[in-house]
């Protein structure tokens, strides 16, 4: 006997849908060593994931119905999808950076105005890069890539800069805040791979060494001012200008053309699914407002409260990597 899926309790038009982490870095000539504590090893996927209740079979069925009814699904992901890959986030309750200490991410204006601040940023990023770049997609990333391949996913927008969706094979993708795997010159705009810059750092700093206490989001670690004072930062090979990762720092704005592009993709969609985001940052929240204005049904999968819980017809507090692979995209 086939049990019908329960009706999702929502007033929106469903007919429309139907149609102390220790890291040390040492260099001696060409020898580079990165040591992470066992806690921060690649396999400790639960380290930065907040606790959540067990999966509810009823909620799974409601979520399956939401996905089944959508023919042009737009998905927006945030840091919560990557915490299961071992990458910490900022806002997760008890385990995010904001809950663990008083440190805050670098501000865009500070990076632009101060060479010492850029030096400190790149020294920390240099130490953290081998670990950050080694992270791999988890089952949630692979599930969304599969949905795209099967024609379920109309577009994917990510607020993350970790390249895990790309590693999983997603192509219908907008990286809203850029990607740490690319570097830009602030003067001429030349773009280079972040891995190539790592090699230039090594050449310039053959005897420099540092030991960090603490791992932060986006490839950052914690170093003292004394540790970074002698760190040498390369300039653009083309024009000699300062280099910056191709990401939107806090206090900066997303390219208006990219924002317009995503607004168009939202308006084309017949459902919006938010995965792993508290939506506290306006750059992502605005697309939920667009979906609301277009009367597009919204579902949210995130552990903990979000800024848009009252706009969603379905809210799930589960691990992304546990729930998404359970859903049949057809």
Automatic annotation (TrEMBL):
Its main location: mitochondrion. Keywords: Metal-binding, Mitochondrion, NAD, Transferase, Transit peptide, Zinc. The keyword Transferase applies. Residues 53-330 form the Deacetylase sirtuin-type domain. It holds the Pfam family SIR2. One of its GO terms (cellular component) is mitochondrial matrix. According to some authors, ADP-ribosyltransferase activity of sirtuins may be an inefficient side reaction of the deacetylase activity and may not be physiologically relevant. HAMAP family: Sirtuin_ClassII (MF_01967). This is NAD-dependent protein lipoamidase sirtuin-4, mitochondrial. It comes from Heterocephalus glaber (Naked mole rat).
